[in-house]
Amino acid sequence: MIDRNEWERDTVAWLVGRWIDGRPEVGAADARLVRAAAGFRAWRAAADREAAGARFARQVIERVAASGRGVRRVEHAPEAVRATAAGPLARAIAAARGTRAAPLAELGVAAGSGRELFDEPCDTWVALPPELPPSRYVALRVVGDSMTPLLHSDDVVLVDLDATVPPGVVAVAHHPEHGYVVKRVSGAVGARRGALLVSLNPAYPPLELRPGTGALLGPVVLRWCAHGTAKPGLATRP
Predict the structure, then answer these.
(1) Residue 113: left if φ>0, alpha if ψ -120 to 50, beta else—which one?
(2) Quick one: CA torsion of 158, 164, 167, 172, rounded to 10 degrees?
(3) How many CA within 13 A on the CB side of residue 175?
(4) Domain boundaries, the chain
(5) Helices and strands, number each (H, E), in the chain
(6) CB under 8 Å to 238, separation ≥6 — which residues?
């Protein structure tokens, strides 16, 4: 119905314009038609701009969805559970396997190349969604805006340490110069090929993970986004 109405308006404007062009003089009544036609043309231009904006928005949404394929979004903070083992993150990951929980680490503390994430102390665990298969998982809090609009600073991502990292997925990597980062893996992936780590925010240049340097930890399978609610990682069971 909307398309038909727009077609009818276009037709009326065209007929009015043809009629005005054939008149030797334009009277007061005709001038009103000229103003009406001009108003309609302005409306059409605005509608076209709005439609173009909507198309661009859809393209952005589709690109973000494609970049984050396989990453489930949870619209609340992760639920904190009692940690059953104390010590560094590596020990917590092993202890949490099979308990439907994952240790939560602050990715920002290992942002520099001099810090080893798995040696960091960890005493906070989060509950896993029941549909996830058994695996070794680690939850990491995102720092910065390099992956907006897919990920926001302070979101918490869940990484499957036992899964492979195919090209095109969002993953956590250890870069020799930039430390632990969340990026989209682009191009060929392999020990002999390395990988290209791409940010969704165009303000950040891609990072090259050369063969024999750094490592791909695993793909991001889930993200907890709690904008406007409690800080991620602090929700607790009643």
Answers:
(1) alpha
(2) 30
(3) 21
(4) 2-67, 72-236
(5) 3, 12
(6) none
Q: Which two tokens stand for residue 61?
A: 């949404």
Written as tens digits, the pLDDT of the chain (238 aa) is 444 455 555 555 556 655 555 555 545 555 666 666 667 677 777 777 777 766 655 555 545 544 555 788 888 899 999 998 888 999 999 999 888 999 998 876 444 445 688 888 888 999 999 889 999 999 999 888 888 888 888 899 999 999 998 888 999 998 888 888 999 998 666 556 678 899 988 889 999 988 878 788 999 999 998 875 444 444 444 3
Inter-residue contact 225 to 157 (CB < 8 Å)? no
CATH number of this structure's domain 72-236, picked from the four choices 3.90.1310.10, 3.40.250.10, 2.60.40.1180, 2.10.109.10 = 2.10.109.10
What pLDDT digit, counting tens, does each position of 85-98 carry? 888 999 999 999 88
C-alpha distances in Å from residue 77, one per residue of 113, 173, 224, 231, 232: 29, 23, 6, 7, 4
Q: Take residue 148 and report the two structure tokens written for it.
A: 């907006």
**Residues constituting the chain:** 238
The enclosing H or E element of 141 equals strand 137-141
Tokens 């619209």, located at residue: 75
Q: Quick check: 95 and 85 in contact, CB under 8 A?
A: yes
